[in-house]
Each structure stands twice: as structure tokens, then as C-alpha cells.
Fold this sequence. Notes:
Elements: H1 12-36, H2 39-49, H3 56-68, H4 71-82, H5 88-97, H6 105-124, H7 136-144, E1 148-151, E2 154-157
Antiparallel strand pairs: 1-2
Amino acid sequence: SRFGITLQNCNMAEITYDVKYDEELVKHIQELFINKIVPENFLLAVHKHDAKVLTMADIQRLRKRLDSKATTEVNFDLLYTMKNYEGWFEVILSICGDPDIKQEFLVEKFKKLKNQLDATWSQQRQPKKEESVLNFDQISSALNEGMLISHTSSYSRLG
């Protein structure tokens, strides 16, 4: 699945985390991607590296835009279209690392940007000492038993 979960193990916090993380990662790499990717070459290589990232309709639409739009506009659209697919970031690294594409220098730059985001993201995601972290099943069970009340940014058990 796109969010790394199965229906048998649905964790709403995990879904929210993945979507927000992907949005932040796109913002983090956006300037480099938009200004350095050669979209004509990139689009030719996408399905060589992962046939599930971008549909033929996506590729055709983006190629058509190349005729009338600036490269940076096409790259913006390309990046935001790619982020809708599972494994999109790894595919970017794989394509850039392809010797035929001749953009290997971008791989380390993208990895460095991701590592910077990961460092700040993990610090921001640490729960505060007074907060308890409950998973979806615990919250659902407690709600069914009438044991939770909303309390600003955390939940408290009624005792």
C-alpha cells in the first residue's frame, strides 16, 4: 500500500505521519529537483527504474507540457505527480544515479537533504514527557469504554 500499512493493521497516526513526511520531503528537495533535473531524460527513464511510478498518461501529459512550458514548471509538476506513488523518492535517486541520465551528482545532494529533514523530523516527532502515546486500537478501545476525554494535545484516562 502507499502508506506502508495493511487493512488488518491500520494505524491512523502512521498514515498521517507518512503523508506529512512526504509533503515535507517534497518541500525539502523541491528547489534542487526543479532547477537541476532534465525532465526529457528523466521521463524516458522512469519505467526503466520502476514501472509503477507514473502512469503512461502522466508521462504523456508531462511530455506535452515540455512543448509549451518552462523546464522548471514541468519539473514542479513532475515532482508533485511523483510524490503520489509509493517509493517515489527512491525512484528519483535511482534515475539520477543511472549513468545514462548523467545526473549522479544529484544523488548525494538529495540524500543529504533527506538526512537533514530526517534529523529535524525525528526531533519534532518525539512525544513530550507528559504525553502518553496511544495507538489507534488503544484509543478506539478506550473510546468504546468511555474512558477518554480530550485534553488539549493529549488524552487522559478518567480515574
